[in-house]
């Protein structure tokens, strides 16, 4: 069984994907990390994320980079969003994601284009959403817990900018697959969102 979990930043898709993988005993791939690795590498090399050639060359990142906690930073997320608009980058990362999806026992992948491009044949597709306000609030609390400063307004603005870029890019934009089940987590706790996701998967024929 392939489970595709797509949605915007801070919608809860990562938490849901991890929990589904644990619950159903499937391997999980956070595909955002791959784009973050490319973005990070471009930043390290002093490259311009808007130059496709630089970004493509940077796709050859070492696997160990995926363990680097720097990948989770807001700055790297911004770089990831900028490199991810380049078709050459998406193409370079396609095969790795496709192989992961096709493992014999199945897999859970989360990202932006899993149900539309990487695994359109997925048995279950979830499109996880939440209001900008709810997502900004979550990000704000996360950052406070880490002792990092940013106002709610700044975070909401950054989320809007990233959503806009992800939704309007020409290649593999963030869009729900026609056969995806929408799950709005705005007013759900993480436990409630996970329980709802499990229910959706179990109800699939
Ligand atoms: O999900 P995460 O915030 O880690 O993703 C970082 C960026 O990588 C996103 O803003 C998006 O631009 C890009 N991305 C993508 N396709 C995916 C996963 C992530 O374009 N499948």
From TrEMBL:
Keyword tRNA processing listed? The answer is: no
> Could you tell me which InterPro entries the record lists for this protein?
Cytidylate_kin (IPR003136), Cytidylate_kinase_dom (IPR011994), P-loop_NTPase (IPR027417)
Q: Which residues form the Cytidylate kinase domain?
A: 3-202
The UniProt keywords, alphabetically, are: ATP-binding, Cytoplasm, Kinase, Nucleotide-binding, Transferase
Q: Which reaction does it catalyse?
A: CMP + ATP = CDP + ADP; dCMP + ATP = dCDP + ADP
Q: Which CDD domains match?
A: CMPK (cd02020)
- Which annotated residues bind ATP? 7-15
Signal peptide start-end: none
What EC number(s) does this enzyme carry? 2.7.4.25
Instruction: State the family it belongs to.
Output: Belongs to the cytidylate kinase family. Type 1 subfamily.
Name under which the protein is recorded = Cytidylate kinase
Gene source species: Croceibacterium salegens
Gene coding for it: cmk
